[in-house]
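S.,

Sequence below, as promised.
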Amino acid sequence: MTSSDDLLVATCRTMIRTLLSCLDNATKGTIYKIGLMPELTAVRVLSGTRKPGSEELEWGLPAQSEYNAPGKQWEMYRDQPGRPLEAMGWCVEKQLSWTADNPPEDVRSVRKQISGVPEDEFHMEPVLVRKKSLYGPYQKVQYPLDWQGNPIWTDSEYVVSAVVKIHFQPGSLRVGDHATVAVHNLARSLGSELLSLWFREKFFLASKEFARQRLQSCEILAHELRNTLIKLGFVFSAINAQVGILRERWEKVLQERRPELEWKGPLLERLSESLSTEVPKLQFSPELFDIGQKLLVDQREMGALSLSPFQEREWMKNKIRPEWETLLKATNFWDEAEIKTLLGRLEKAFATGMSFDPSNEIEGLPVDLASRWSKLAYVQITSGNLFQLDEVIRLVEEPALPVFHKEQMLRVLKSLRAIVHTIQEVEEKANSILQSLRFGSRTDDEYGIGPDVLGLEYDEELGVGVAD
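The prediction came back faster than expected:
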């Protein structure tokens, strides 16, 4: 049986190769494993550096580093007075990314703080796993403490299981750009893989008592395998995030070239202006004041996000309309007819991009391309309509499509397509293992619980995990 450490290194190798292949301006990738609470030991697992003038990568770890095995415990890298601030401490404690796009001014560059020499540009992304997936829904855990003795993560559903660090060429990194979004999206896959490796270790320990507790072990395994398969759904989230970029760009094109169409943005601005004017008057009722403040935040967030029409209707149903109805019923600060008219127009505006007739020519866009774009920009890719993922990829390949970072988008979509096609095979293997454990009496090797426990092997050409 291959050790979990070997599988962890192989998983990190696949992730680093995928990230560097998607990001042309990336020069190096490193993955750190964050241990269990409360120690949160950070250990550098693997680094991959792009060879100059080549797509090949050099693998290995620096000879000396505080993060090489056995690693660095939480108390040694958290924020604390009297020692340099570390980006690692920020990512782990805050569960947020850190982008060093201006090395001379980076307040969390240890090298700059100690020796005055700035590091290169980099982006660090925490890999999050749900607490209940790792520790169970009822298990009590001891939370790590910040330097003031306060527990961290108590209000979060997640724990940090790893940190991804990607270095970039000088002047090529900006906070919130496509590269950081791609790292964020692909980091989700690493969380699923780490959860799978954790499950493998847990099952190995349980299998020692398999003869005595076969039925109980089988029930636990079924639960964990289903959790793992659910986690593989990260692929569809990442794919639909790319579709969201296509949708946002399509709507911008329409707004520029069809100004007579009605969109959600101006309507939400009118509703927010009306709220901003009257909400201060609600201070006589703390409950109504809180509702008004929350509604204002929800409307502004809705205007900033590129949601699908279905998601926008859900927001309207669950967040926007009920709160407005409460305020209109409890006060007479607003013209009820006017607000209800705006809300009705807002709901209709969600489908503006979908209902546009592509036969109306758009300057600079072929009719066929506009027709395909208007349809594919609003698809939601699931396991039941994977054929549309191929259609989206062919759309992005169109030279006339006016979308930024098309090459990077294509790399991401093709890499995710290679992964998503393995999910059905993973499920079949999982069911086969369950049947063998429930009714059979073979050894671990005969069950196929080895390096390919989830049916994933490394493919050198694609640079991603694919089914064997």
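Residues 441-468 have pLDDT under 50 and may be disordered.

Coffee later?
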